[in-house]
Amino acid sequence: MENKIAKNPSATDGLSRVDGRLKVTGKAKYSAEYYTKGMVYAVLAGSTITSGSIKSIDTKKAESAPGVISVITYLNAPKVPGYQDTPAGAKGMLRIFYDEKIWFNGQPVAMVLADTFERAQFASGLIDVTYNKTPFETQLTKNLDKGVSPHNAKDYLRGQEEAYKTAAVKIEQEYLVPTNVHNPMELHAIIANWDGDDKVTVYDKTQGVVSTQRNIAQAFKLQPANVQVTAPFVGGAFGAALRTWPHEIAAVMAAKLLKKPVKLVLSRADMFTAVGYRPHTWQKIGLGATADGKLVGISHQATGQTSVYEDFTEGVVNISQLMYACPNVDTKYRLASLNVNTPTPMRGPGEATGAIALECGMDELAHALNIDPIELRLRNYADTDPLSGKPYSSKFLSDAYKMGADAIGWSKRHAQPGIVMENGWLSGYGMASGMFGAYRGAATVIARLLADGTLDVQTAVTDIGPGTGTFMTKVASDVMGIPAGNIRVKIGDSSLPPSPTQGGSAITSTVGSAVNDACVQLKQKLKELSGNVEGGSGGYAQILQQHNLPAVEVTVTSKGGPDMAKYAMFSWSVHFMKVLVHPTTGVVKVDKAVSVADCGTIVSQKTARSQIIGGTIMGTGMGLTEAVVIDHRYGRLVNNDFANYHVPVQADIPQCEALFVNKPDPYINPMGAKGMGEIATIGVAAALANAVFNATGKRVRDLPITPDKLV
């Protein structure tokens, strides 16, 4: 399908969320809210040691407790056929209830199944386990020397290695980003129910019903069509539901064993050890420039933690290869295997972590050069992709710098830190850039126009919160000229046409293109019927009635064309922060936040604004409040609840301003739209750190920036 930018104006520019009423009235059903007759409730019991093996496990008391139907451990768990595909000793996802080995504290060692949740929870505390303990390591900073180069993240060199050291002005610093946990409002939950031995239905919290269908089919050696996955609503995920986790396999396993539907809802504490996190990462950045601010060299090293049983890698150092025009760049990425559960992508993936070092480093370099931080970035602005040499499909980041600077009042920023006071508080401004790849995958959409003028649009994609159904409605309305109220979107069902997992800021580009192309073909089909197409549901309904047709339907698979290989495609952002810091207590208050996104055409204004504000809040947590704490004597998490793991609350967040360049990308897709979910977070924490330095003169390089680090 030719990529022509949609130009027809629409009354849906201010479209509210099409599922908003369902959500606020409680009619939207999430995975834990389904009910099947004869439901059995499952609760996991976790290991109390951090490394070793189970010596003995006594479940008799639990099995004798009221309402308990069964207790599953590695001793009696049904075999999962797919587990046999992993060779002995090979790294891979945790195989739950597979053997006696313990890899991390909190690893599930048993699952209690009872007729009520409360009874299952009570009985889980009656299981008696003895262990053979072995030495363990949970502290990244004491194991940096054990970092190894992963096979899928090779060292990178452009030009001369460590060229920054030869520059007239240089900085070299280390940064630490702690473990952050996704902590969406909705707990992870799954209901599994078998129909015979070869068919299973699951209601699951997942970012991709098709990938979950495929993973369960592989694990239990089923035909994918015999695995039905339903997830029409997901209450936030941020990457935590990108993969099929061991607890999901356990629920399906238990349902098959009991021949009854099984419901498993993780506890908030489970969420810290069962569904991944942003890994604790050490970084070292070296930046060098000429006296007039032209970059000479960038050196970026990072070591992130992973589990001892599975390698998890992310693009922490990649942003330094891509962000600025610099002739000499070298990066190295290492993994340290620790006795922790496996990390997973978290909003902004590695780029949000890498931006801490690069963008704070650029701020430090600007200070050393006595150059405005925006001006330093403009002097090193990349007009073509430094990594591939390809032209950009579009880039208007310089526009974003100006828009954000004007909105935050950047001209009021004082270059000398620590001297501006407002009502007894130190005041400061900071900014940082962000970037993330812009993608377009393949998706299939059914578009069906009914004789009454209603348009049905269907695909399997899930919606984890950004408003997928809303932008699908908007695109269909724009192309067809049909009011949004006449369009029905069905998603989150593996029996629908396939579409990708929601992640990586690619769904608007991918699924939106498929909706666009399906509607274009549907209009063409109607034109062939009538010889002329009169826009609007009334005209379409008349065509169907004239031909005695109950409906006209098309099924279209859409994917990117040759332009995807010709151009470097990225989304860009810049985040501005004004902070107030109390000089005595070190308390930091965000006074104003402005984020500007350069991500092509904005398809849905309201949901786009929500995306940016949500990313700003998440980045604020990363910068100021969030960190997992482990008691390294025991390898045990000590703040695995909302009382002690501090996510930003309403009082922490000012009115955030979300701005958009809103210039179309002419090559990526028919709408000219690129993703924004990741760039909404990438750079926010760095902007906060830079603002705190401007306010106080103190550079905090060990996140989060808590009061004790400023007094």
Can you put this structure into words, describing what you see?
This protein has 711 residues and is an alpha+beta fold. The protein folds into four domains: 1-13 and 390-431 and 567-711, Aldehyde Oxidoreductase, domain 4 (2-Layer Sandwich); 34-134 and 185-236 and 241-272, Alpha-Beta Complex (Aldehyde Oxidoreductase, domain 3); 154-180 and 280-389, Aldehyde oxidase/xanthine dehydrogenase, molybdopterin binding domain (Aldehyde Oxidoreductase, domain 4, 2-Layer Sandwich), CATH 3.30.365.10; 441-559, Aldehyde oxidase/xanthine dehydrogenase, molybdopterin binding domain (Aldehyde Oxidoreductase, domain 4, 2-Layer Sandwich). It is 25% helix and 24% strand. It contains 16 helices and 26 strands. The strands form six sheets. It has a seven-stranded mixed beta sheet. The chain has a five-stranded mixed beta sheet with strand order 7-15-14-13-8. A five-stranded mixed beta sheet has the order 16-17-22-23-26, sandwiched between helices. α4 (209-220) links the parallel β10 and β11. α8 (349-369) packs parallel to α16 (684-696), α11 runs parallel beside α12 (507-530) and α15 (605-624) crosses α16 (684-696). The protein is globular, with a radius of gyration of 27 Å.
